Amino acid sequence: MEALTPYIAVIFTSTRTEHHDSEYAFWSDQMTTLVREQPGYLGHTSVRDPVTREGITVSYFADDEAAVAWKQVAQHEVAQQMGREVFYSEYRVEVTTVFRTYRAMI
């Protein structure tokens, strides 16, 4: 078990629509660049099934304030609106505190 200071994980699950793929890719790249500049950002991982179009992105922040601040960045708010109106047929956001992690190297 790895000892650590608790941090925040924002879990975003979604299903992409079948439209606007190039526009989605542009916004996704822009958000990746922008989030990396945010105070308290620790990293993220993202995967999407090309057949079902279901995806998950988990973003990590030092604390809840950093996660909330990211949600409120103006360009991110525009991307969120685009997601609701164009990019996703459904999505869910979960925010949780990570108290410990486990890792195995096999």
- With strands numbered from the N-terminus, the spatial order across the biggest sheet is 2-3-1-4
| Rg from Cα | 15 Å
- What structural class do the secondary elements suggest? alpha+beta
The CATH topology annotation reads as Alpha-Beta Plaits
Largest sheet: 4 strands, antiparallel
Oligomer state of the chains in this structure: single chain
End-to-end span in angstroms? Answer: 16 Å
The domain count comes to: 1
Given this structure, which CATH class is correct?
A: Alpha Beta
**Per DSSP, what share of the residues sits in E-state strands of 2 or more residues?**
25-35%
Residue-averaged pLDDT: 94
- What's the number of extended β-strand segments? 4
Bin the helical content.
Answer: 25-40%
- How many helices? The count is 3
Query: In sequence order, what are the helices and strands, one letter per element?
Result: EHEEHHE
